């Protein structure tokens, strides 16, 4: 047995650990986090989280405050996204859980189909592949337009068959920030009596405000006939703490399939509205507090700030020699790719941006989409656009001086010989050694060589290699 550590010392140690993390404020981390730039929002959220953290969302009759707050959040989302009095919904832990439940509800709604499928554009979020894996719903991939990266309504319609339980569209897609043609896809789905889920996890709390301000935002919400469910993350552009998303259904009958009940055991009747049972009330209360504090007018201003910053940054990217923006982004996301063959590597650009205090997210080539850097722009980037663009221009210059990253021919041959379904720990260790990446399992400070290696691996092998690497990262500590 060891003695406990004083609270102040524990907090100091935690603060020291956090110093190695990416910054979550200031707009310098252009993925994973969403920063409103409002100084009091995080403090309010933390205080609200603390007030309800010990409450358990498992039983709404025991903690009616959580029930009230969840209904308030669902109602706010429904009003924003064209819902009506019949709209039903649930608060989930994030966009992935919302998408999983949309697929589950669709599958349960058509139990007579022995081998169900869902029709998804190739740009659909990976959460739908996770749903396919977990729930036995086959994903039917439909190529998108190779220039705009928007879903092809005709191809989507042709992919629907008697096994289809769900069709998916994005508003916008994460990879390119473009909004799929939801009205046309909705017509095709409705004609076959199939549900249509709109993944608005990213755009659901920003696109409606841009539309109100006069922006040309394509229709995507419940005002489109045939849309049966929508996911929207409050921990994205509603600027709430992590762990809060909303899944909306056009009616309660459509939601029922996501629920779970079990009374066939000697304990309490288990009733779940989401995949989770026990749920801390902390994230829910924090989101409820933030939404009430910022309000409609505040969100309108934040949306316009984020969109203005996006437009500024896009214009700046387009004049940097060797870079271009993919597609025609309609929200607050950018995908920055190489323009021709400029003689440098985007993965090196990402490393050089990190050296300058900015995180941009590498995305690998997929189909007609080339390797690119993902930028999630938030309201906190407004006013800091010149600094970001100056860093990007300097990063490109440094990458051009360094030249393209070359993967050793021997290592590439070793990769080609690996079978992702039969990869052994010894083979993985040998690959790391051959690529001079073997070590203690920690992350190197620069990732260009690793990303270049992963880029030449087929997607299935890339998945397996990353899972093996993940296993190296998550190992029990000697003591805490």
Automatic annotation (TrEMBL):
<dbReference type="InterPro" id="IPR015421">
    <property type="entry name" value="PyrdxlP-dep_Trfase_major"/>
</dbReference>
<dbReference type="InterPro" id="IPR002129">
    <property type="entry name" value="PyrdxlP-dep_de-COase"/>
</dbReference>
<keyword id="KW-0456">Lyase</keyword>
<protein>
    <submittedName>
        <fullName>Pyridoxal phosphate-dependent decarboxylase family protein</fullName>
    </submittedName>
</protein>
<dbReference type="InterPro" id="IPR050477">
    <property type="entry name" value="GrpII_AminoAcid_Decarb"/>
</dbReference>
<dbReference type="InterPro" id="IPR015424">
    <property type="entry name" value="PyrdxlP-dep_Trfase"/>
</dbReference>
<keyword id="KW-0663">Pyridoxal phosphate</keyword>
<dbReference type="Pfam" id="PF00282">
    <property type="entry name" value="Pyridoxal_deC"/>
</dbReference>
<comment type="similarity">
    <text>Belongs to the group II decarboxylase family. Sphingosine-1-phosphate lyase subfamily.</text>
</comment>
<dbReference type="InterPro" id="IPR015422">
    <property type="entry name" value="PyrdxlP-dep_Trfase_small"/>
</dbReference>
């Amino acid at each position: 047995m060891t003695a406990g550590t004083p609270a102040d010392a524990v907090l100091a140690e935690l603060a020291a650990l956090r110093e190695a993390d990416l910054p979550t404020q200031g707009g310098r981390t252009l993925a994973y986090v969403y920063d409103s730039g409002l100084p009091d929002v995080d403090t309010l959220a933390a205080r609200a989280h603390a007030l309800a953290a010990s409450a358990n969302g498992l039983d709404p009759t025991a903690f009616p405050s959580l029930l009230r707050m969840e209904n308030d959040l669902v109602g706010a989302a429904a009003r924003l996204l064209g819902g009506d009095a019949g709209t039903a919904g649930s608060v989930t832990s994030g966009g992935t859980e919302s998408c999983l439940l949309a697929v589950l509800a669709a599958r349960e709604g058509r139990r007579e189909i022995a081998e169900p499928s869902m029709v998804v554009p190739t740009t659909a979020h990976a959460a739908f592949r996770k749903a396919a894996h977990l729930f036995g719903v086959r994903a039917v991939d439909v190529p998108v337009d190779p220039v705009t990266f928007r879903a092809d309504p005709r191809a989507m319609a042709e992919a629907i068959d008697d096994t289809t339980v769900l069709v998916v569209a994005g508003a916008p897609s994460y990879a390119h920030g473009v909004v799929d043609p939801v009205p046309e896809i909705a017509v095709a789905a409705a004609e076959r009596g199939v549900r249509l889920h709109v993944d608005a996890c990213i755009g659901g709390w920003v696109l409606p405000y841009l539309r109100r301000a006069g922006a040309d935002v394509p229709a995507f919400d419940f005002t489109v006939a045939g849309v049966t469910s929508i996911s929207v993350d409050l921990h994205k552009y509603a600027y709430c703490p992590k762990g809060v998303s909303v899944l909306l259904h056009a009616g309660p009958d459509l939601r029922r399939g996501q629920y779970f009940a079990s009374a066939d055991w000697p304990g309490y009747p288990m009733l779940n509205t989401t995949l989770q049972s026990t749920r801390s009330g902390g994230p829910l209360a924090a989101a409820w507090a933030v939404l009430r504090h910022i309000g409609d007018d505040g969100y309108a201003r934040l949306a316009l700030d984020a969109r203005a910053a996006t437009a500024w940054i896009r214009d700046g990217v387009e004049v940097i020699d060797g870079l271009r923006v993919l597609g025609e982004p309609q929200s607050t996301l950018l995908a920055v790719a190489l323009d021709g063959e400029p003689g440098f590597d985007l993965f090196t650009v990402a490393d050089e941006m990190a050296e300058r205090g900015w995180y941009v997210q590498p995305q690998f080539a997929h189909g007609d989409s080339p390797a690119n850097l993902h930028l999630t722009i938030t309201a906190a980037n407004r006013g800091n656009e010149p600094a970001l663009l100056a860093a990007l221009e300097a990063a490109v210059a440094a990458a051009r001086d360094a030249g393209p990253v070359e993967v050793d021919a021997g290592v590439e041959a070793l990769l080609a010989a690996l079978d992702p379904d039969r990869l052994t720990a010894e083979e993985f260790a040998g690959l790391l050694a051959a690529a001079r990446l073997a070590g203690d399992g920690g992350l190197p400070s620069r990732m260009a060589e690793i990303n270049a290696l992963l880029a030449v691996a087929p997607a299935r092998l890339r998945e397996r290699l990353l899972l093996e690497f993940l296993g190296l990262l998550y190992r029990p500590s000697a003591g805490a």
